[in-house]
């Protein structure tokens, strides 16, 4: 490496105006872990030609390696639309940390343009905590969380139209059928439901271990019936400035009502129940009341608006949220069985080169794997094949042995949840609420 560097430096000494060469040197220095020298060369390259995308790219990366947020923003902000999504996120965070909120917001907007559903908690938090709070006489300073200059509650609420449907969800057939009856058909054929005297409305609460498809299913349900999909991250809403979270929630529901048929999806819904237990008054409590009012139609009608909640901890969900007309159907989303795991494997592999795979054999060895774990397995196997393709220069398909070798490197992530659930099923199975979990636990023993 040092000889490469020495010859690059020497070549550059002969042609100091060669900007591509200087950028190459900067990148090589950065790759060698010499970020400070890389930064000097990249800065010189940008000074020579400030429009060079690659020079700015290296300069920002070097600044990132040196922990210099301001320099990173200076380098990357002008090329924000050409960066990878990951880098744009890094840019937005650095801008938020240095209090450059307009730049942070614009970078965030670039992310949104690529993925309208993007919702980055860390970024939201950074943008809220970097700005001086406004002077409010009525609230003691210590109780005042900081807020950005323009209220998040006023930000336009935009739903998405998911492009996936139930065919993108592996296995879980009974669950899909259930959601068709509870969500899809009521939104598609409200006339029939009314004709047969079936009530439409209320919500479905999906619960289960992480990574087993709760969010994925909710999104797919919206895609299945062409409904608009609104995501409410309870933690993010709870984090908002006093009074804003209620307004934000109300705005989301208003928008959902205006664009019906629509589905409002609440992630981590137990967070709001927890808030109610801990706080008799204050923001958490007010938000619960607001949510209850919205679920009841908030003075108008929720026709064409269905709600889905998701949680890993159903035992922490506020019982008030489970009353009739609210989240009154509680549905367990189990880890996939072997057939479903095979299905998820096939979905994850469908756009990659493969050869002679016996997915059933792999799936059978993935006891207690979640859907996300199955995806992870495919990533690891793909990297193995890719690594070899890069070394040899020959592209080869993903093979059974790639998948088998990857099994050692991926561990099931549902075990801890299952052990927690086991305690609740034994000691707190109110009204048979967790019977389905009980059946799943017994199936593990069998
Ligand atoms: N049955 C499935 N079919 C296809 N993909 C799945 C399935 N289950 C999980 N996945 C994949 O795993 C990823 C994680 O799933 P998802 O985010 O829906 O899990 P979750 O149950 O909402 O987890 P968490 O409790 O952590 O929010 C998804 O992006 C999806 O690609
Ligand atoms: Mg989820």
DSSP summary: helix tally? 21
Give the overall silhouette. Answer: globular
Q: What is the level 1 CATH name of the largest domain?
A: Alpha Beta
Q: End-to-end span in angstroms?
A: 58 Å
- In total, how many beta strands? 5
Here the CATH topology of the largest domain equals Rossmann fold
> Strands across the major sheet, in which order?
2-3-4-1-5
Concise synopsis of the structure shown:
The protein is α/β, with parallel strands linked by helices and 446 residues long. The chain has 21 helices and 5 strands. The chain has a 5-stranded parallel sheet, with helices on both faces.
SSE blueprint and pairings:
Blueprint: H1 2-14, H2 19-31, H3 35-48, H4 53-65, H5 69-76, H6 85-97, H7 101-114, H8 121-129, H9 173-188, H10 190-195, E1 203-207, H11 214-225, E2 228-233, H12 234-238, H13 244-258, E3 262-267, H14 270-278, H15 282-295, E4 305-311, E5 329-332, H16 338-349, H17 359-364, H18 371-392, H19 400-407, H20 415-427, H21 435-445
Parallel strand pairs: 1-4, 1-5, 2-3, 3-4
The structure holds adenosine-5'-triphosphate (ATP) and magnesium ion.
Residues 169-172, 210-216, 310, 312, 336, 340, 344, 347, 371-372, 375 line the site of adenosine-5'-triphosphate.
């Amino acid at each position: 490496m040092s000889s490469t560097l020495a010859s690059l430096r020497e070549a550059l000494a002969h042609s100091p105006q060669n900007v591509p060469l200087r950028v190459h040197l900067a990148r090589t220095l950065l790759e060698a872990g010499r970020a400070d020298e890389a930064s000097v060369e990249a800065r010189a390259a940008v000074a020579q030609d400030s429009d060079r995308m690659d020079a700015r790219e290296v300069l920002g990366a070097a600044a990132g390696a040196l922990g210099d947020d301001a320099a990173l923003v200076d380098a990357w902000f002008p090329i924000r639309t050409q960066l990878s999504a990951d880098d744009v996120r890094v840019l937005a965070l650095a801008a938020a940390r240095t209090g450059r909120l307009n730049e942070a917001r614009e970078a965030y907007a670039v992310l949104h343009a690529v993925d309208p559903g993007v919702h980055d908690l860390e970024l939201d938090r950074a943008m809220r905590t970097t700005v001086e709070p406004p002077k409010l006489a009525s609230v003691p300073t210590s109780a005042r969380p900081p807020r950005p200059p323009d209220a998040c509650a006023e930000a336009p609420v935009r739903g998405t139209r998911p492009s996936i449907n139930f065919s993108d969800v592996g296995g879980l057939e009974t669950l899909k059928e259930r959601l068709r009856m509870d969500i899809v058909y009521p939104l598609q054929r409200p006339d029939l439901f009314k004709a047969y005297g079936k009530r439409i409305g209320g919500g479905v609460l999906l619960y289960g271990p992480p990574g087993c498809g709760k969010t994925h299913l909710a999104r797919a349900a919206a895609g299945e019936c062409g409904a608009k999909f609104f995501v409410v991250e309870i933690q993010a809403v709870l984090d908002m400035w006093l009074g804003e979270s209620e307004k934000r929630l109300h705005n989301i529901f208003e928008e959902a009502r205006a664009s019906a048929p629509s589905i409002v999806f609440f992630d981590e819904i137990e967070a709001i129940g927890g808030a109610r237990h801990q706080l008799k008054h204050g923001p958490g409590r007010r938000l619960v009341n607001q949510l209850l009012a919205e679920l009841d139609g908030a003075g108008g009608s929720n026709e064409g608006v269905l709600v889905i909640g998701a949680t890993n901890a159903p035992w922490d969900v506020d019982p008030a949220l489970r009353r009739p007309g609210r989240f009154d159907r509680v549905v367990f989303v189990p880890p996939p069985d072997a057939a479903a795991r095979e299905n998820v494997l096939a979905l994850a592999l469908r756009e990659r080169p493969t050869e002679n795979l016996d997915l059933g054999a792999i799936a059978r060895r993935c006891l207690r794997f979640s859907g996300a774990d199955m995806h992870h397995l495919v990533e690891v196997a793909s990297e193995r094949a890719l690594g070899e393709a890069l070394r040899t220069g020959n592209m080869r398909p993903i093979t059974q042995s790639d998948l088998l070798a990857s099994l050692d490197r991926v561990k099931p992530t549902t075990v801890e949840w299952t052990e927690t659930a086991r305690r609740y099923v034994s000691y707190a199975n109110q009204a048979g609420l967790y019977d389905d979990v009980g059946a799943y636990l017994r199936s593990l023993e069998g």
